[in-house]
Amino acid sequence: MNNMLGKKRFVACFVLPALILFISFSMIPLFISGAYSLFQYDGMGEMKFIGLVNYIRLFAEDRHFVKAVLNSFLLVGASLLIQLPISLLLAMVLARGVKGEKFFRTVYFLPVVISSMVIGQLWMKMFNSEYGLLNHLIRALGASDFSYSWLSNPKTAFLSTLIPAVWQYIGYHMLIFYAGIKSISQDYYEAAQIDGASKWQVNTKITLPLLAPVIKTCVIFSITGSLRAFDLIYVMTGGGPNHASEVPATLMYNNLFRRGLYGYGSAQAFFIVVECLLFTFIVSKLFKKAEENASAI
Amino acid sequence: MKMKKKIKFLLLCLIALTQLFPLYWLFTFSLKSNGEIFGDNPIGLPQVWRWENYGNAFTQTNLIRYFLNSVFYSMATVAVAGILSAMAAYAIARMKWKLKSLVFGIFALGIMIPAQAALLPLFQVLDKTGLKGGYLGLLIPYIAGALPMSIMILIGFYKSIPIEIEEAACIDGCGIFRCFATIILPIIKPAIATASIFTFLGTWNELMLANTFVDSDRYRTLPVGIMSFAGQYSTDWGLIGAGMVIATLPTIVIYFILSNQIQDSLVAGAVKG
Q1: Which fold would CATH assign to domain B61-227?
Q2: Closest partner residue to A18 among B85, B180, B263, by Cβ?
Q3: Statement: the pTM of the whole predicted model exceeds 0.80
Q4: What CATH class has A63-296?
Q5: What is the per-residue pLDDT across A45-54, written as a single tens digit (0 to 9) for each?
Q6: Residue A189 to residue A185: CA distance in whole angstroms
Q7: How many CB pairs under 8 A join A and B?
Q8: ABC transmembrane type-1 domain location, by residue (chain B) (predicted)?
């Protein structure tokens, strides 16, 4: 048996199809992107090596990009401060067992399985200036001529895309938290009950510390998901009006496929990758202590 | 105490409502005339149920084509990525070879890499090889993209089943391929299902690659197709709504049939990631 599982030919037959496909259509393109980002290149003319100049230009000259990065940080903030706390709270309430636990879980999660294109189109219609539900509601409350176009005003365009972005994935994080809480051994809770711990103590001294690895996962997902956000914003505003709701991915997309700025756009693409890896690293470091404590309990 | 419980329950209901309401609204306006949507009945059930909105969506647009394309892309991706990742995961979890941890690392890294980072070079490669624009031009990137997560889910599962089962079977002298096909695959069926659901949802809903790599209507997927006719018929909300419901229905139906497995699948993806 051991002999058979070690034969090179078998290993090759099993691994190579997936590996070759993945390397040639995901990894190599990624590295080419990284290489392009060091060149001045428009796809047709000559490629001129310019080192890190594209990256410097991103921050020194491109105010749209700086704005896009700030927007993506706003999205990170909304996910961490609004989405995750709601998800965690829901998970804690549901995991303790309430009437209709399964119903609520199923309903909260429902938006996750729907395409962001549909979610985006749907919320565009919610925010529509004349016929949108939001303005209908405001008119019904008394402001009878109210007609404000949320998505075509630079002040509210990006904020309006934040709402569905936060809304859609509440159920996703809720479910990960929920699974995490359910996997905590009942013994802890029984012991706590015997010791007469209050609910607050149970939550803060048992559930939350033991949940640290799961919270870490959700925080990383939230951050990287927000930094690479594209679909919803592309559908709802396309980055407009006048670049007000741009995020790095939408700018990158325009630079690459509308303006043919292959080198510069690739620097934006690669910036997103570096950002995601960096934040993953930082969050993992920050959670290291908490995770150690969790495994020590 | 009882009061507190009631408030909690009410809050849960309220949030359930905010999660459901937009979908209810979508479904109802897909069955209304513009007169109702824009006029006196934006929120209620349709006064007249206009199923012809769906008829129009099918006859006036290429919705059927988009739908069949999406079915094809999703099914083919699920099938091919499923088999390839079951094999690769088996080799990584079970076989003994030198570069095992390197290969594992490559796939693990793949989960963290955003798709947009590889977009342009991928576009160029597909263009040069003549694959761009056809079915393969989208299918290949979809399969490649689905592999890392699928492999991680399957490795987790392989590690949880005892190796004795295979040993008992393989000792009888059946070759490794037969052993894999007749013994291993049936055992890991639940994990393949989990990974397949993950792959299916990702492929069915994918927008960016489909929008970039496909330029002819013939090969277009539902999300891109509907986005384009939403611009074209922007005032006909009933028609767009019908298209959006059609695009959503398969995932919702599958979700209600398999909601436990889907929830497990996405949690598995998160925990392995």
Answers
A1: MetI-like fold (1.10.3720)
A2: B85
A3: yes
A4: mainly alpha
A5: 788 899 899 9
A6: 8
A7: 256
A8: 67-258
